[in-house]
DNA sequence: AAAAGCTGTCGAAGCGCTTCGACAACCTAT
DNA sequence: ATAGGTTGTCGAAGCGCTTCGACAGCTTTT
């Protein structure tokens, strides 16, 4: 393995000079710089990560905690992870992948060992056990998601409340009055994962304001669960003409069942989905949807951290404004047409 | 930040003694050990990762290179990544997430900088540019996937050739004679990603042996692409009664289109999928499938590496035997029933 | 012409840990 | 009782880097 000292010798300068060429923290004459860079290239030198971390107290690593369970939003998680990794590289950081498995201990371990300079947490519960630890350390962190109390924290998330409102507004504008919400699996609500409840808040508040009737049913993914849920909905409120779906794995079952029951989309019922664009465009009906900007969230989180690590940036909550794209799954409410 | 020296002082021993308590590399009396462990707990000590890496030339980190593109097998990638991360932790390793973006440079960077002790590579091309680099370093690595030349490499993968054969056998046993393969997107074949071609090899070889006729059509995911592909297949070979699907995002479109055309599954046509179990059980028809053992591959890869890093283990190719689970999408060929 | 200020480079200290050799203290075999 | 082992602990060196202070050699100011 090539060391700094070897590069220095090869270039005929001292070790510190090479270090300053690398870091740019002191001015170096053009000729010396070139000579050093040449030596670096010729010898194929890569600075040793451990030594660097030890000497500078900076690992240039960002830790990313992803949820262990894969009961929801797998493609979203993946997209975020990839966006985080690629964005981090452009800022000179690598990404350490931690699963939720260790729980709060992972936070202790990472901050205590100096393994990473900063952390990104996903799958944040409203009252997450990791939050006190984050508040008690001076290591920067960003949450993707929104806990109940955001004081002293930096968060990035889609504005799910506005998302809920937006879905309702779109359906209202089309004349729908009775709408049903196919929610996430019950477990997601029990866990108090913020986004599900916030969406529901938005849906409820706006539908009330607009004088609409709303039915909310959590739903596991898959056909059987969906069949039961759908039957119940039409049983309780046969006049339902609008659906909002917030569960990727319920989308296709819902469409198939509606089709099977002879209810045409969008002529008889309209469906709005809250899902990544990819799902919306690949479904059997091209879905009107509010997209989940996974990449943007991941990128934003890293940029916040990079700013904080540079001494810039501060704590703030960034809620990304939802955007609804009209596709082929929504249309005027049937009663509104005559 | 608490240091080894502070722990040593607190426990009234030397730094090296604390180090040996931690590593277990020399015998320590029970009383001393307990005193040290007590101090560690009281002070909340975590060894500094950088210092440890520098002194021991071991980072206790495994690098995982995942593909940047998300055009296939997203849930599989995710499952592998999670399995790798959790298994790594049980062996005392953390996982560094690298995307394919950097290409071969990532390998150079990681091995050169001592960032990681070992690497796991996914999305391996038949003639991958990273392979020469891996062969030229003494850093252990494992490929998830199979390149053309495996000399000097350790690989883990599903035995896709046997998988292809198994699918054909199952359909043959049910009396099907004309079968169609809905393959991965054309780009996957062009990239020469081994698994797709190996599956095809297995399908072709076994169907020839069994005197069956086989049609192979690559297919992008989604409804439109599937509609075109399916039309072409029934056009060219109307007698087709068996399908093998190797593209998750083609599964649901295929089923929907068949249903729409009045072809009952499994009465008129049978469908065998090659996909994770989760997809097979959540589809609109419970699919007979060969599962992709993502977790097992991830776990196995880490265990191979852990063994190598312990000086045990050696280069070998492990092909996991496919298992076909019969569900509700396959049945006797229609002509075979009378 | 002296003082003051830059610029570019160097030497040395030290980051927190692992690990090697040394050695005291004890135990066992002769 | 002595030589030869064990066992448990310590001190010191050193891993490869960053960074601070020093300073030589300039240029600019007074």
Automatic annotation (TrEMBL), chains A, B:
Keyword Transcription: yes
The entry's keywords: DNA-binding, Transcription, Transcription regulation
UniProt keyword DNA-binding, yes or no: yes
SUPFAM superfamilies: lambda repressor-like DNA-binding domains, Periplasmic binding protein-like I
Pfam family membership, one: LacI
InterPro entries: Cro/C1-type_HTH (IPR001387), HTH_LacI (IPR000843), LacI/GalR-like_sensor (IPR046335), Lambda_DNA-bd_dom_sf (IPR010982), Peripla_BP_I (IPR028082)
Matching Gene3D superfamilies: 3.40.50.2300, lambda repressor-like DNA-binding domains
Protein name: LacI family transcriptional regulator
Organism: Streptomyces curacoi
């Amino acid at each position: 393995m090539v060391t700094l000292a070897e590069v220095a010798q090869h270039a005929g300068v001292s070790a510190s000079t090479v270090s300053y060429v690398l870091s740019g923290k002191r001015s170096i004459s053009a000729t010396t710089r070139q000579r050093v860079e040449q030596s670096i290239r010729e010898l194929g030198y890569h600075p040793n990560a451990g030594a660097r971390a030890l000497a500078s107290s900076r690992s240039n690593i960002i830790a990313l905690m992803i949820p262990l369970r894969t009961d929801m939003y797998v493609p979203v998680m993946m997209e975020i992870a990839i966006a985080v990794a690629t964005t981090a590289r452009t800022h000179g950081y690598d990404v350490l992948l931690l699963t939720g498995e260790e729980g709060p201990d992972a936070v202790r371990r990472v901050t205590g060992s100096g393994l990473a300079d900063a952390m990104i947490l996903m799958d944040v519960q409203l009252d997450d056990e990791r939050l006190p630890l984050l508040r008690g350390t001076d290591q920067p962190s960003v949450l993707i998601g929104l806990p109940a109390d955001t004081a002293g924290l930096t968060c990035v998330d889609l504005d799910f409340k506005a998302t809920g409102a937006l879905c309702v507004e779109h359906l209202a504008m089309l004349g729908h009055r009775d709408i049903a919400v196919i929610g996430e699996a019950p477990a997601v609500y029990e866990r108090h994962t913020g986004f599900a409840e916030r969406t529901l808040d938005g849906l409820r508040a706006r539908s009330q304001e607009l004088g609409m009737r709303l039915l909310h049913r959590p739903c596991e993914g898959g056909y059987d669960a969906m069949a039961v849920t759908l039957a119940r909905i039409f049983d309780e409120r046969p006049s339902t003409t609008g659906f909002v779906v917030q569960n990727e794995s319920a989308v296709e079952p819902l469409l198939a069942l509606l089709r099977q029951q002879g209810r045409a989309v969008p002529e008889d019922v309209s469906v709005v989905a809250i899902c990544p664009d990819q799902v919306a465009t690949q479904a059997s009906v091209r879905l009107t949807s509010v997209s989940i900007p996974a990449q943007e969230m991941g990128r934003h989180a890293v940029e916040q951290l990079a700013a904080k690590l540079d001494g810039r940036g501060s704590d703030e909550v960034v809620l990304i404004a939802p955007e609804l794209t009209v596709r082929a799954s929504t249309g005027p409410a049937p009663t509104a047409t005559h």
